Amino acid sequence: MLYGATMFPTDYALRPDELAKMMEERGFESYWAPEHTHIPASRRTPWPGGPDLPQEYWHTHDPFVALTAAAMATTTLMVATGICLIIQRDPITTAKSVASLDFLSNGRFLFGIGGGWNAEEMENHGTPFRQRWRIMREHILAMKEIWTKEEAEYHGEFVDFDAVWAYPKPVQKPHPPVIMGGDGPRTIARVIEYGDGWMPILGRPSGGPGLPEKIADLRHRAEEAGRDPSSISISTFGAPADREGLEKLEEAGVERAVFWLPPAERDKVEPILDNYAKLMA
Fold it and tell me: For position 209, what pLDDT does the model report?
């Protein structure tokens, strides 16, 4: 099993380039950076993780800037968005950000995506909350055209452009893996249609079957849709910090376990990384 870690890159935490070097030295496979452009002060939308929203949610660096710093400080560590709120971004400029980071990192980028949860944050970007999934689908399909075609065009309900030239193209072919976050009733269908991987958050109630059953269902439905189930990776956010829990994930078919790291300075983060490294070993 592969091991990664996620930490909000903030203005008061360990720098992403320093964290990335520490992770690479300890054998981690990937570093994941979340995204929030801002948090509306109204706090109308409840946070799925609990009653109180942590302050790192509105202190977060732009993930592509943070991950570029991490990539430039390392040679083997994969850098990843976990997750990119593409429904709040222009698809043409985001396609260029993804391709540029993949190019500059020599093919070390993983594109974690999701629909998000904060309705008023989306509204500030002009994205209606109820349309976010349809918008996400078109953004991804349009970006795939840009990454893979010399002259790309896309004509949809939310994204519409005639033939364009856009470089660089990603190093990874046909493009960096698109890994879908979340665990909603339609998530698996979206993964099968336009994703390369699935990444639920552990520890958040979602109802219904457990993780092993959901993974089995994903593989069965992928096969029915004509996709090779082995081409869809399974990752988990919030991996347990104990060997027994990790072994259960591996038995269920999880290929990548991603640990949480607090957004803090080196003296607090380093011992946690060392403990995770022992579990990985």
Answer: 78
pLDDT of residue 205: 58
Domains of the chain: 2-280 (3.20.20.30)
Question: Could you give phi then psi for residue 208, rounded to 5 degrees?
Answer: 75, -160
Question: CB–CB of 187/222 below 8 Å?
Answer: no
First-to-last CA distance in the chain?
11
CB-based burial, 230-249: b 16+ in 10 Å, e otherwise: eebbbbbbbbbeeeeebeeb
Q: What is the pLDDT of residues 173-193, one digit of tens each?
A: 999 999 999 999 999 999 999
**pLDDT average, residue stretch 5-11:** 98
Instruction: Return d(Cα 149, Cα 85) in angstroms, integer.
Output: 24
* pTM score: 0.96
Tokens coding 38 = 């801002």
Q: Where do runs of H (alpha helix) occur along the chain?
A: 16-25, 63-72, 91-104, 119-124, 132-148, 187-194, 211-224, 243-252, 266-280
Residue 207 pLDDT exceeds 90: no
Distance CA 168, CA 249 (A): 37
What DSSP string runs through 239-275? --SSHHHHHHHHHHT--EEEEE--S--HHHHHHHHHH
Is 222 within 8 Å of 232 (Cβ atoms)? Answer: yes
